[in-house]
Amino acid sequence: MPDNARRPAVDTSRLMSRFSVPWCVRSLVAGAVGTGAMTLAYAVDHRLRPAVAGPLDYDDSLVPGQIVAHILRLPDVTDREDEQIGRVLRWTYGSAFGVAHGVLRQRMAEPRATAVFGIMIITATLTLFPLLGGTSPPWRWPAGVMATCVGTHAIYAAAVGVVDNEFHPLENS
Fold first, then answer.
1. Residue 172 neighbours by CB distance under 10 Å
2. Is the dihedral of CA 45, 49, 51, 56 positive or negative?
3. Where are the domains of the chain?
4. Residue range 43-95, pLDDT digits in tens
5. For the chain, how far is it from start to end, CA to CA, in angstroms?
6. Considering the entire predicted model, what is its pTM?
């Protein structure tokens, strides 16, 4: 290469090798980022809709904590404890579900992996709340609850997909 030839400012091969982590760790981190994005979406939604008192959907309510308390047979759980259990649950399963995206990502390219992941996540939400949480079936949910549910889960899935794909070695080598 001649001395006056243009060279890249950054050696991208070294940069990307810094991010070469096992796929499951990458996907766990992506799940945590997705959970953060979902949590932020709820905070923004609460600010945009101040007239709505209380939770915007079932994920934003005490129901997740009540489900865990019921499954673990925890006696006399207060609303505050239900809220705390629900928060721990959201960050735990939100991060862990990132691994499901990683499994899909190993088998298919983007955006298909994230589309399938998003469908999987919303299907789980729409079935598990009625089955485990005693909520009404989704076709009876108020339109605002359904819109929030679908919107926040779409944000979660998109954030997981973007982060997981950004550091996917096959896409960025």
1. 13
2. negative
3. 32-166
4. 999 999 999 888 999 998 888 888 888 888 988 888 898 889 888 989 999 99
5. 22
6. 0.84
Q: What's the chain look like in SS3? A: CCCCCCCCCCCHHHHHHHCCCCHHHHHHHHHHHHHHHHHHHHHHHHHHCCCCCCCCCHHHCCHHHHHHHHHCCCCCCCHHHHHHHHHHHHHHHHHHHHHHHHHHHHHCCCCHHHHHHHHHHHHHHHHHHHHHHCCCCHHHCCHHHHHHHHHHHHHHHHHHHHHHHHCCCCCCC
Q: In whole angstroms, give the CA distance from residue 98 to residue 129.
A: 20
* Largest pairwise CA distance in the chain: 76
Q: How is residue 110 written in tokens?
A: 């983007």
- Average confidence (pLDDT) over 94-105: 94
- Phi/psi at 95 (nearest 5 deg)? -70, -45
Residue listed under structure tokens 């009876």 = 140
CB atoms within 10 A of CB 9: 6
